[in-house]
Amino acid sequence: MEGTPRPVRGRPGRRWCPVTATVPDLWECHAVIFDTDGVITDSASVHASAWKEAFDEVPGVDPPFDADEDYRRHVDGKSRLDGAAAFLAARGIDLPVGDVEDTPGTETVCQVAARKEEAFMRRLSERGVDVFAGTVRLLNKLHEAGVPCAAVSSSRHARDLLARAGVRSLLGTVVDGNDMARLDLPGKPDPALFLEGVRRLGCEPSTAAVVEDALAGVEAGSRGGFGLVVGVNRAETEDAAHDLSEHGADLVVDDLARLVRR
Questions:
Q1: Catalytic: which of 25, 35, 130, 250?
Q2: In sequence order, which ranges of 153-256 are alpha helices (DSSP H)?
Q3: Which domains does the chain have, with CATH numbers?
Q4: Where does the pLDDT of residue 79 fall: very low under 50, low under 70, confident under 90, or very high at 90 and above?
Q5: 37 catalytic, yes or no?
Q6: How far apart are the first and last CA of the chain?
Q7: One of 25, 37, 42, 130 is an active-site residue; which one?
């Protein structure tokens, strides 16, 4: 980490990385910024099912919210309000924004977002949170190699999720939804969350990597000028891999353990 920072390889050649490949680019980085939901913690499915419960109660949503495709395209990686607004707009439903203090309901965007939050917290208390073993393995190896790592999330629950998952000690800093509100940071695909994370680690974006599973997230990493943007293809389909690449991923893997140096 000493000496003059140097840009890492990656751009402009974007590529789908087969699951059997080892990609050394990550190990040239001075810092790695991880998304939380769907990258470190297996909580994206909990978010998706909570969104479905909320959207299924909104009159006029047709076709119904798909917890796989609609989640990936419209709400994954975004703040609750941005995600709710994006999906409703995609279905041609125009609700007033409302107030962030609105209670759960279906008459405003804020009420729909509040209903999702209520459903998410109920599911979290019932199911707890799992982690992706490949990500934990990579975090441990980066920690051993002295590469500082951060986690970012638009969720206000990220710190709690990471602590429950037992990986908080592997992270130099966490930027979450509470920081977004306090610092007035815009959500993804704006790169503000990632830029705040790399700033706290004392690195330049061009010498750092972003690891994301969301389309809005890889787009944010690309917009932020990061030296390497890794897309995580949790859907494990060629279409999903293509979409991640098209939105800004330099390489795409389905398991972060593939990036661990042997």
A1: 35
A2: 158-165, 177-183, 192-200, 215-223, 238-246
A3: 26-42+130-259 (3.40.50.1000), 44-127 (1.10.150)
A4: confident
A5: yes
A6: 21
A7: 37
